[in-house]
Amino acid sequence: MKLEPFAMERMQSTYENQVRFNLSESGVNPLRLDELVDGAVDRDAFFAERLRYTQSNGTEPLRSAIASLYDGATVDHVQVTNGGAEANYITTWRLVEPGDEVVMMVPNYMQTWGLARAFGGTLIEWPLVLDERGRSRWRVDTAALERLVTVRTRLIIICNPNNPTGARFESSDLDRIASVANRSGAWILADEIYRGAERDGRETPTMWGRTDRVIVTSGLSKAYGLPGLRIGWIVGPPAFVASTWSYHDYTTIAPGALSDALAQRALEPPRRERILSRTRSILNQNFPVVGEWLDGRGDLFSYAPPDAGAIVYVRYRIPVNSTELVTRLRTEKSVLIVPGDHFGMDGYLRIGFGEDIAYLRSALERIGDLGLRIADRGSGIIQRMS
Length: 386
Ligand SMILES: Cc1ncc(COP(=O)(O)O)c(C=O)c1O
Prior knowledge:
Layout: H1 7-15, E1 21-22, H2 40-47, H3 60-67, E2 78-82, H4 83-95, E3 101-106, H5 111-118, E4 122-127, E5 129-131, E6 137-139, H6 142-148, E7 153-159, H7 171-184, E8 187-191, E9 214-219, E10 231-235, H8 238-251, H9 257-266, H10 269-295, E11 301-303, E12 311-316, H11 322-333, E13 335-336, E14 338-339, E15 348-352, H12 357-368, E16 374-375, E17 382-383
Helix pairs in contact: 4-5, 4-8, 10-12
The chain binds pyridoxal-5'-phosphate.
Pyridoxal-5'-phosphate (PLP) binds next to α4.
């Protein structure tokens, strides 16, 4: 099996710990361990955890806590994985056979794009549409989906809220996607890892429950600010979830015992509420900072404000390739952001704004400070990003 490089993750893995300012992340400033383990009693209990192989599909209390987030789900509908990444990996591996067609919402987190192709699938892109009437927003084009999905479609992949645009898609869209899938017998993989990280606090509707062949993947890395736990999950029909368990045997066997124990704490209802409200307050404090910075540069940038997640997907009007621009920012200013090239869309940048606010301000200052001399399209006027 040949894997195409997963360009964004490759860049992040290579450089995220080398740069002074990393704005390539899409989640919020992570929690500390002592924000999950509080009080002497809990601390003692945590310290007494045995570093064993834990229940390999996730302990029952953790699966039960996850199941409670999805109407009608039970522990048998849930498998705990190492991050949302493993949930996506196992699901795609389980479903896609050579010759299958996979219809994928783009732009998107490109993990399943690469995997579906590696497993022999034919990847068909379903582009989001940028609606610029009034307040600009990214929307789904369900009529286009109807044209792309056929009896050969094995899987439809969506990401809601969407990475990289931060757009939230509503129930009416999800119902239409479900009915298109039903007509062809396709499965749906809905990556909902940013659900719960909405700026306005209105939870994104889930795909769960809209057809019998829905698999939701998610985890604690984004909305919960706990990427270091590496806890993700698959929620799906029990027979499907049972079948993916043996795939897990070939990947990582089990989540870490400590991570499982900490994830249980994170999902205790009052603490979960506190964590999500912390995320919301980071997003609402920080987005205006990046928004003002972008708006203060004339017509150099345009963007649809994100509904969720600590990312803004920005179109820039400079005649320079996005990877080149990002490389210059990294090498000259030690700031890392994601080029639109990594989503197959040159001319865009994804900027993460979930970090500490002072850090964010300093990083933006440095970007502006690049003093990048660029010819304004057509007019020949020299502009600066600063
Ligand atoms: C949409 C999406 N799914 C999955 C992942 C991977 O999540 P995790 O870190 O939990 O493996 C990411 C990470 O950026 C993501 O953006």
